[in-house]
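Acyl-coenzyme A oxidase
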Amino acid sequence: MEGNRRLEVLERQLCGAQLAEAPELIDDAALSAICPKQLQALLVHDNPELRSAVFEFLKDDIFKPNHYLSLMEFRELTLQRLQRFVAADFGGRGFDVRDYMNDPRRFMAGLECLSFCDYSMAIKAGVHFTLCGGTICKLGTAKHHNALLPKLNTLELPGCFGMTELGHGSNVMGIETTAVYDAPRGEFVITTPSNEASKYWIGGSGQHGKICAVFAQLTVGGVWQGPHVFMVRIRDDSGRLMPGVRIKDHGPKMGLNGVDNGQIWFDSVRVPRDAMLDRYASVDAAGTYSSPIPTVSARFGTMVGGLTTGRILIGQGAVTACMIATTIALRYASQRPQFGDKLIGDYLTHQRRLLPGLATTYALQLGMKQLKVAAFDAAKPDAKLVHVLSSGLKAAATWNRVEVLQQCRECCGGMGFLAANKIGPMKTDMDVDVTFEGDNTVMMQQVARALLDDPATARLNAPGSWDRVALAGTPHVSAGQLHSLLQAHERSLLCQLRDAMASASSGKGGKGAAAAAAAFEENLDLVVQLGWAHVDARCMGYMLDEARAAPGGAAAGVSVLAQLYGATRIEARLARYLQVGLLNGADAAALRLAVNKACRQLGSGGPAAPALKLCDAFGIPEHLLAAPIAKNWREMGQTL
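Tokens:
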């Protein structure tokens, strides 16, 4: 039943089935009536009391930015901040790792708030609670939950996540760390067989970690059973390394220096039989392996499925950074004159650099909202849909963050380079998000692969002349037209790739699957474009859905943002739209004018510009903006 519903949704998405249009012609009066509170409720609709409590908690002086710390001082501060967090009582109920399973919305909301303050703290918390704690929750059983989770809740047992190896990042199935069961002693022997097999970039291991969820290739009775997870103590209660464990601190990094990353080797480290997380597979005392999941590949897929929550948090953190940066940059632009009395925010060039990022931030936030609904609110989540959305949105959100933060930094001039104005430190701290929790290029390939493997795509026809949307000569480029174009673009890429793979597999010699796989690799540039196209079309659809359902104080803002989002996503890939005949030169000219019009509508007016109300809707407390230029740039340096 779920599969049929997914096919219907995908077919509707790709074939451009039209629903009732969102309001298209938005006048200045409607934009001036934007209500930030209504928009905020639309953007973030879960756990408002907890979010408010965490934001209030983050007013404490310990959470104020300090850019003068040494590496070791920053690490110590990050640990102290996290200790404060775990000790806090948010409305009578503190943060609990068991909510990873029991109340995932609350779990996510608590951790999301930390990204507004400091990314090192957010990532250290994410590694400890989501990757280590979440793995125990999802893959462990009662004995693991009872013994370990209370100690994770208090930070008595700081946790790490040992998946990545020096020689294996994205290829988790190929990890080389081994776990061999010694039946006479009832123990697993964890071994690092080569330097390439050492666990690498392990957050929290360099200094503070005491236990690690270690992914290792399991062998029982001489039979390989694939990757499994083992809880291994790496330091004792006093912080000394356990016997057979070697750790090298990675030291200073490009950013995120509050997190103590390290490299770990295991020299025949023995752990008890109960150290294996055994929800989906177990080894009895006699050395008999059993699992309800019959194949290695299926077991592996189940075990790594828990990474979705971490992937969502990374994507959400990137969107949060864009909220902060665009708010700072647009506030500064609304009050900073240059070349006379004209504000820099009133120049079209400035608007074109900042406002598409604002529109994309809204689109991705609404995408993240729908992803959370699919992952956490459905009675029986559609695992394939969640995988596609989490992979695509993580990649799109983090790549977008790179672009948005750079534009915001440049548009603030030298002020954007000043650490006190927050954008610069966010850029360096967060640059890792494009490669951790899944390399973005690989994530987009997974999106494309899922689309190509879906039976619904076999019935699709490539776009033809009837799919061309004439933008030229119309009085107004509508969001509905732009959505249709985004859908047709996705379909054109999907059909081109599908046909290339089908042609290769049915060619001379009947090479079949191997030839299709080779064709996939020969077209990896289009594969990544397909992943992007799917995210673009989905997010545009979500924006239109929200605009149709939104109250009057929110609908106008979302509608204009949807027009700007759709137009700029097409403009960024204009060459392909022209190449496949979805647009012509006159349409491209009309598209440019549509972008300019939306930018003018949103960005003009100085402190009264509608864009500022759209930023207010993010609900960022003033103490977490923490950028002097977001308040009054004229006072910079007055207090020494």
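The first strand starts at residue 159 and ends at 162.
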